[in-house]
Design goal:
Elements (H helix, E strand, L loop, with lengths): L12 E2 L3 H5 L9 E12 L3 E10 L14 E6 L4 E2 L2 E2 L3 H6 L3 E4 L2 E4 L4 E5 L9 H4 L7 H14 L5 E13 L3 E12 L6 E12 L3 H19 L9 E5 L4 E5 L12 E3 H4 L3 E4 L6 E4 L2 H15 L12 H18 L4 H15 L8 E3 L8 E4 L2 E4 L6 E3 L1 H12 L11 H22 L4 H28 L6 H15 L36 E3 L2 E5 L5
Parallel strand pairs: 16-23
Antiparallel strand pairs: 1-6, 2-3, 3-4, 4-9, 5-6, 7-8, 8-9, 10-11, 11-12, 12-14, 13-14, 15-19, 16-17, 18-21, 19-20, 22-23
Helix pairs in contact: 7-11, 8-9, 8-12, 9-12, 9-13, 10-12, 11-12, 12-13
């Protein structure tokens, strides 16, 4: 093969056509065929990352999208991209020299393209080792030590262990569930137990140390207070692997146990129908929102000592401007509006200084939460920082907005306003109970409007990162929401103050909702699950 080709002028190939070309590369699939995209992101300066799931050659077999060992990652450098196309032709790709620099990793240097077969990952060099659980592997002893810590008994030993990747972000992180079968004793008095432990492998070797140090402080502090911790118990850090090990969150057994429920499932719109089946009534997960607010207040008032730079309003404003510029390039019809709003946001957000920078999550949203009964766990404490508490409040409220809001779907605005009011009211009360005065709390909620606007710019930019179609109406709706967040007279963050009927006094300007109708006792309309009427929390 020739190594003289260079990406640049001339013919280009579409990203959609890349899969059919990649699977013809040598040593990529080893008997598998049929690629389907399971993950796609393009970010400025980081290039394009696509994760494909490969099917099997056997007739009638379906693609195994959930089996990570059938995943194949393609990384394309920013210099090889032009819009949604690649700066080389099919012929150049087929003729370019392919190098195998490590097992499972193919590189085409002249085209700035890398193909990786899971678990091979240039930026996660210890991932493969973190998945090997045989007795002779270095991970085995670490898992056994973590299990003994959790069980508070040094007599347990592992009979066998299995590693199952559950979430993978190429070049950044992989979440692994380790299932351990343990024994202790001998003869007829052998005790057996199965245990699950979650591991997180990071590309940055410094990150697991910082995360585990903060987690251990928070967990120990809450145990000393005699309260139930809001995070899973941190068990061990394996520095040589860039791996943290934490106790798995398991649901309590019992007749009333609902099992472990992910935050994205719990904190989303549900509606009930009247007896006549002709109206929709919002169902607000009040207990779960209250638990979420209390957990966040406990984090914000903790004594955890965190290192690293402050997360300031100036930094959030800078990222908002960058995302607005991305929107402007991607959707020129909204360019002036997006950049004008970003500049207005910068003037208000950049100079803000809280009374105290407090321990914060840094990316607090429903996907980071796991509910067990009425308890909530923060399962991804990956970016702990010192910040204005308003950052976390605004972040959560931005992500609490359902996608149907951007399409004007029935009931969505009403659900969000009610859910936001529940959360804010519970957060205000929880902070007050922890000794924070009303003036300080009011300041946090006021600044949360601006942090929420900055986070909405991030949400709007996701469509660009995924190379979806422009959909200017959807982006315009997001910009309208950003503008409302920035308006002090029509705050998008309810103040938590209520009238006698419990209705939030400050709502959005377009909170009017048309009721949708449905037939039967259960119906799905516009992505909304409609259920028979039941009393809300």
């Amino acid at each position: 093969m020739s190594g003289s080709t260079q990406p640049g002028s001339g013919a280009t190939v579409s990203i959609q056509a890349l899969s059919s070309i990649v699977q013809r590369l040598p040593h990529c699939l080893r008997g598998q065929t049929g690629l389907s995209i399971r993950y796609l992101r393009r970010k400025p300066g980081r290039g394009l990352v696509i994760v494909y799931a490969a099917g099997a050659l056997t007739a009638g077999s379906a693609p195994h999208g959930r089996d990570p060992h059938r995943w194949l990652t393609v990384v394309v450098d920013e210099a090889a991209l032009v819009g949604t196309r690649l700066r080389f032709s099919t012929e150049q790709l087929q003729q370019a020299r392919v190098e195998t620099r490590a097992p499972g990793i193919l590189t085409i240097p002249t085209l700035a393209l890398v193909v990786q077969v899971f678990p091979a990952d240039n930026a996660l060099p210890t991932l493969a080792t973190s998945l090997r659980t045989a007795h002779e592997e270095p991970l085995f002893a670490e898992l056994e030590a973590a299990a003994r810590t959790q069980l508070a008994d040094p007599d347990w030993h592992i009979c066998c262990a299995r590693a199952d990747p559950v979430r993978y972000k190429p070049g950044s992180r992989c979440v692994i569930r380790y299932t351990l079968k343990l024994e202790k004793g001998s003869g007829e008095r052998v005790a057996r137990q199965e245990l699950s432990i979650f591991g997180n492998v990071y590309g940055d070797p410094e990150k697991p140390r910082a995360i585990q140090a903060a987690s251990q402080q928070l967990y120990a502090q809450q145990m000393q207070e005699g309260s139930q911790p809001i995070i899973p118990r941190p068990l061990r850090t394996v520095e040589t692997l860039g791996l943290t090990l934490n106790q798995a969150v398991e649901a309590n057994e019992g007749a009333n146990s609902k099992g472990a429920r992910p935050g994205l499932q719990v904190l989303r719109p549900h509606f009930t129908g009247a007896v006549d089946g002709e109206t929709l009534d919002v169902v607000i997960p009040g207990k779960e929102l209250r638990a979420t607010a209390i957990a966040l207040a406990r984090l914000h008032t903790s004594a955890v000592r965190l290192e690293g730079p402050l997360r300031t309003g100036a930094k959030a404003a800078k990222r908002a401007r960058e995302r607005a510029a991305l929107i402007a390039t991607y959707c020129p019809v909204l360019a002036d509006r997006a950049q004008r709003l970003a500049q207005q946001l910068t003037k208000s957000l950049a100079p803000l200084q809280p009374d105290t920078y407090r321990p914060a999550h840094g990316g607090f949203k429903p996907s980071q939460l796991l509910f067990c009964g009425e308890r909530v766990f923060v399962v991804d404490l990956d970016g702990p920082c010192l910040a204005d508490p308003a950052l976390d409040v605004g972040y959560l409220l931005a992500y609490l907005r359902p996608n149907g809001l951007w399409y004007g779907r029935a009931g969505m605005r009403r659900w969000f306003v009610s859910a936001a009011a529940k959360f804010v009211s519970a957060y205000r009360l929880a902070m007050c109970e922890r000794g924070i005065d009303e003036t300080t709390i009011g300041g946090i909620l006021e600044r949360a409007r601006l942090y929420g606007a900055a986070t909405l710019f991030k949400i709007a930019a996701r469509r660009i990162h995924r190379l979806n179609g422009p959909r200017p109406a959807e982006l315009a709706a997001m910009l309208t929401e950003i503008e409302a967040c920035m308006s002090s007279s029509d705050a998008m963050v309810p103040t938590g103050k209520h009238n006698r009927r419990g209705i939030a006094l400050q709502l959005c300007p377009d909170a009017g909702i048309e009721a949708a109708t449905f037939e039967g006792s259960r119906h799905v309309r516009d992505g909304i699950v409609a259920r028979p009427r039941s009393r809300s929390n």
